[in-house]
């Protein structure tokens, strides 16, 4: 193999490594000064509208994290913490207060694989898109507004007739469309949802909590009324 071919092969190989790395699960655990889990903290990398959220045990999972990325933890409307990833795949974060933050590599957390990611998706924060962002597209239909906003979500069609696919074509004969859930209720379509009433939309690749119906994922819509009830 001559030098040009070797260089070309190395470039392609490096590109594959970077591509695959982005799909590797990144798991985290967030604790307070008393080593108790912090629940409901929003965590994102580049886009605050696409985030994970810590569960009641302080766990969160992401799949779009690169070695040189920085995590942003939103503790409140006025307070956030930024933590460099520095190539880690599992991280234990301790918030001791007074800007005292410890972030440690944790191989045990990393070894859980997609476990934390699935837990995050189970709680409905796989790809959180706010209603304001959807309305900014100028679209009047929720599915139309989601086009291009969620990685892996493919929406084709227009005028109220859409084909939606989250996890790729799994069945040649059976349905591949996700289920639709509005304020916790499974519905046949989203046509009746007013864009002005949308608080946020979440797209789940793993919707196993809905049984066999969620095998192709789910699109969850929370209206302003539904969000008010939760609060």
Describe the structure.
It is a single chain. The chain has 231 residues and is α+β, with helices and mostly antiparallel strands. The chain contains 6 helices and 15 strands. The protein has a 5-stranded mixed beta sheet with strand order 9-14-15-12-13. It has a 4-stranded mixed beta sheet with strand order 4-1-7-8. A 4-stranded antiparallel beta sheet has the order 3-2-5-6, with no helix packed on it. Strand 12 and strand 13 (185-187) form a beta hairpin.
Largest beta-sheet characterization: 5 strands, mixed
| Low-confidence segments | 3-22, 119-126
**General shape:** globular
Percentage beta strand: 25-35%
What is the count of DSSP helices, taking H or I runs of 4+ residues? Answer: 6
| C-alpha end-to-end distance | 64 Å
If you average the pLDDT, what whole number results?
78
Pick out its properties.
alpha+beta, 231 residues, disordered N terminus, 15 strands
Summed up:
It is built from six helices and 15 strands. With 231 residues, the protein is α+β, with helices and mostly antiparallel strands.
